[in-house]
Amino acid sequence: MEKEQELKNIVKEKYAKIAEQGKVENASSCCGATTPSNKVYNIMMDDYTDTKGYAEEADLGLGCGLPTQFADIHKGDTVIDLGSGAGNDCFVARHETGSEGKVIGIDFTPNMITKARNNAEKLGYNNVEFRLGDIDDMPVNDNVADVVVSNCVLNLVPNKEKVISEMYRVLKPGGHFSVSDIVLVGELPDSLREDAEMYAGCVAGAIQKEDYLQIMIGRGFKNLKIQKEKPIVIPEDILIKYLSPEEVKTFNKGETGIFSITVYAEKPGTAMEKEKITLSEIKPESSCNPNSGCC
Asked: Beta-strand (E) ranges in 78-213?
């Protein structure tokens, strides 16, 4: 428990600083937390600019996917965004729910909540609300949300089982989630995983892809599927801060992979039995081969 709180404090302190930075400064690094790379502009984020509801002033460049694109949000829905930051995903979700729906953003960084509330007020959105709190102990009642979304946030939370249990609790029976996150295939070198800066930058907080999916299955979610998957390539000028030149070569040639995945699953309805899902049944609907040049 003490270690979990220590890691939370690291993330909170880092994201308080990020709230005061611009998009370019954030996006050119690893989820906004590390020294910018001079080789790429964005390591993880996807481009929102053609997405309806996008608010540039609320985009800090911290995401690793477009979960709202896959979230199947309908008019009148109640949507909860976990780790809502400056509010961009909430505003995209609000475009889908319309004025008759409701969007609740949850973030544990006061600076982010203030920034998001200011953005909502400027946009005149009275049905978008931002609440200060931990996503592993949400300030939300049971069975409230039709949809839960999140963008590159669960990997920052030490106790992922608790967050996923909270997602199950706040979703209505028959509700669903679509979350984008960072996962691993194979083990990262210890120097990457143990570094606090890298932890706050999304990578060292990530867990194995199969473990990540199994937590969701174990909690009782059904119809689990990977909606999108893409490899994350960390430039050498960032890797060299953590690894020796020889270790960088070995790392780049190895089987270890860092991936952004967008995952969808449903909470069973009241009269519905939980379906048994095996990991072998889960196939990406969309994927990107790092050798194909699509990244």
From this structure: 78-82, 102-107, 128-132, 145-151, 171-185
Question: CA-based angle 101:107:111, to the nearest 5?
Answer: 115
Q: Tens digits of per-residue pLDDT, 29-85?
A: 444 444 545 443 345 566 666 677 767 776 666 778 889 999 999 999 999 999 998
Distance, CA of 191 to chain centre: 23
The residue whose two tokens read 């009148």 is: 76
Structural domain boundaries, residue 237? 2-281
**Measured distance CA(173)–CA(180) in Å, rounded:** 22
Q: What is the pLDDT of residues 237-276, one digit of tens each?
A: 778 888 888 888 887 777 777 888 999 999 999 544 434 4
Q: Is residue 179 part of a domain?
A: yes
Q: What is the CATH number of the domain that holds 50?
A: 3.40.50.150
Residue at 287 is within a domain: no
25 in any annotated domain? yes
Residues 285 and 101: their CA atoms lie apart, in Å, by: 28
What domain count does the chain have? Answer: 1
pLDDT tens column, 221-230 = 999 999 999 8
Identify the residue whose tokens are 């889908």. 96
Reduce the secondary structure of 154-174 to three states and give it as a string. Answer: HHHCCCHHHHHHHHHHHEEEE
**What is the C-alpha to C-alpha distance for residues 131 and 106, in angstroms, rounded to an integer?**
5
pTM of structure: 0.80
Residue 286 lies in a domain: no
